[in-house]
TrEMBL record:
Membrane-spanning residues: 49-66, 72-92
The UniProt record lists the keyword Glycosyltransferase: no
InterPro entries: SLATT_2
NCBIfam families noted in UniProt: SLATT_1, SLATT_2
Stated name of the protein: SLATT domain-containing protein
Keyword Transmembrane: yes
Length: 177
């Protein structure tokens, strides 16, 4: 293990670390992009369903008062049934937190993209190929800073998710007094 660490303290090793870090950033960016799209779609469909069913449930009592030429009777009870569907969709959204997840994922993806751009731009000022120990140390310091920031972004999003999940659990768990 020590030999491997020493191998990484030369210009080629530093370049390998940078490429690995860029690959990790690309993977994280792709993951957050994919998940943000999925959660965003689910959140929009859930909310659309609640809006449409809310309109239908408001319309049903009105329709029960309109005489039908074809003897179709609409029971006002259907308004209650649609309200049950709305409440179920609301509980799904509250429990799953898809809208909040979409926002967290979009922000995390943007932060990771910014970090990747920072690395690519800041890398221009390093020249570990000169084999100067100062250049290699500076490059390693920058790589460490970027790696730590990547970890902080992902960890922060995960902590926000845990807090949101606990909140969703608390708001959908029946209370007994």
């Amino acid at each position: 293990m020590c030999e491997k660490a020493n191998d990484l303290c030369n210009p080629a090793g530093v370049e390998e670390i940078k490429n690995n870090l860029l690959n990790e950033l690309d993977c994280a960016i792709a993951w957050y992009g994919k998940k943000a799209g999925q959660r965003g779609r689910f959140a929009r469909w859930t909310r659309r369903g609640m809006i449409i069913l809310g309109g239908v449930s408001a319309l049903i009592p009105v329709l029960t008062q309109i005489p039908s030429p074809i003897d179709v009777v609409i029971s006002p009870l259907y308004a209650s049934v649609t309200m049950i569907f709305i409440a179920t969709l609301f509980a799904f959204e509250k429990y799953g937190g898809n809208a909040e997840a979409w926002m967290r994922f979009v922000l995390a993806k943007q932060d990771l993209e910014k970090l990747k751009n920072e690395l690519l731009i800041s890398w221009c000022k390093f020249s570990p190929a000169n084999n100067s120990s100062n250049d290699v140390k500076s490059a390693l310091d920058e790589l460490l800073r970027i790696a730590n920031e990547k970890h902080r972004i992902v960890q922060s999003e995960t902590k926000d998710w845990i807090k949101e999940f606990k909140s969703g659990m608390a708001s959908t768990t029946p209370r007994t007094n």
